[in-house]
Amino acid sequence: MRVLILGGTTLTGPYAVRRLQSLGHEVTVFHRGEHEAELPAGIRHVHGDFADPPGEVFHPPPDVVVHMWAMTEMDAESFVNTFRGVARRAVVISSGDVYCAYGRLIGLESGAPDLVPLTEDAPLRKSRYPYRKSSPGPDHWMTHYDKVLVEQVVRHQSDLPTCVLRFPAVVGPNEYRRFHRWLQPMLRGDMELRIQDEWARWRWTHGFAEDVAEAVVLAATNSRSAGRVYNVGESYTPTMTERLTEFARVAGWRGHIVEVPASELAENDRMHHNFAHHIVYDTTRSRTELDYKEVVPPEVALARTLEYERPG
Questions:
Q1: Distance in angstroms (rounded) separating the CA atoms of residues 218 and 216
Q2: Helix, strand, coil percentages for the chain (3-state, nearest 5)
Q3: Radius of gyration of the chain (CA)
Q4: Of 138, 178, 221, 292, whose CB neighbour count within 10 A is largest?
Q5: How far apart are the first and last CA of the chain?
């Protein structure tokens, strides 16, 4: 099978590319050239603009096209218009920030917490552009980012049958160090780690990069995934204290985690989200329909994430 991956050179993509090739598929990676990943020989690289792909992207035509970087409604519309009638089907990466619970978490919406775990049919955000206030400028992708709109575009058409994968919070080498502020004290050997009490009890589904990439591979190689939406991530979502405790155990850290009110932390360490709203996925559908399961032992995933955090 010929698989074309748009993006795929940073966090989860390289794992998916390697795995697809190892299964005997012909893989082409089409990206902007801003990042280069170490990939096996035989992987075809094409550089260019997603909005105006060069002709070599279409020759030979892909059977499946995977979009790792569809961030805006315009991205999704361009993608569908470009590959309808070219590829047989597609896989598009989405996020748990589509859920209403996320809008309530960050204060864009109000309401009582939704029941967790969140299935793929849980209510979606009615608010739009969740990161616009954090965007560095009007032309930055964050200004127009909205995975709800991406999903609407790809799901409300039939010319390019599309599977949507809702990724969890992804950890592992090359991610943006989402646990940096808490892991660094452990790695320095500090004996006390103070964390915000509300955040300490919060739950958010995570996934190790190589594990999450396996879901991409399974969706790309299973034609029955077309038209389906899947939550991807760990089967059990711990609290943040439980998650940090596991990191501490693997790191061999002997200090203590202390939960304190936000008022006892420095201003830049306080988080102002409403942590009554948990982002916990129900991953039953991906595990039953795609036969998804983790490919990296938990201990190894934690150790590799910690190694990435260690000072060079």
A1: 6
A2: 35, 20, 45
A3: 20
A4: 292
A5: 40
The identity of residue 95, as a single letter, is S
- Token digits of residue 56: 């070599």
Report domain extents, the chain: 2-309
CA distance readout (Å), 161 to 4, 39, 232, 247: 15, 28, 19, 40
pLDDT score for 307: 94
pTM score of the predicted model: 0.96
The CA distance from 267 to 1, in Å, is 53
User: Is-contact 144 74, C-beta < 8 A?
Assistant: yes
Query: Residue for token digits 């569809």?
Result: 70
Question: In DSSP terms, which residues pair with 302 in a beta bridge?
Answer: none
User: How far does CA 71 lie from the centroid of its chain?
Assistant: 12
Residue spans of the chain under pLDDT 50: none
d(CA 269, CA 301): 26
Please give the helix or strand (H or E) that residue 200 lies within, else none. Answer: helix 197-200
Q: Tens digit of pLDDT for each residue in 15-47?
A: 999 999 999 999 999 988 677 778 888 899 999
**How far apart are alpha carbons 145 and 136 in whole angstroms?**
13
Q: Quote the CA–CA distance of 252 and 58 in Å, as a whole number.
A: 51
Q: How far apart are CA 25 and CA 3, in angstroms?
A: 7
Contacts of range 238-245, beta carbons closer than 8 Å, 24 or more positions apart: 238/203, 239/200, 239/201, 239/202, 239/203, 240/195, 240/199, 240/200, 240/201, 240/202, 240/203, 240/204, 241/195, 241/200, 241/201, 243/206, 244/179, 244/182, 244/193, 244/195
Q: DSSP code of 238? A: -
- Please give the Cα distance from 298 to 102 (Å, whole number): 26
Residue type, 108: L
Looking at 25-115, list the stretches that DSSP marks H as alpha helix, in order from N- to C-terminal side: 73-83, 100-105
**How much is the pLDDT for 34?**
72
Architecture in CATH of 2-309: 3-Layer(aba) Sandwich (3.40)
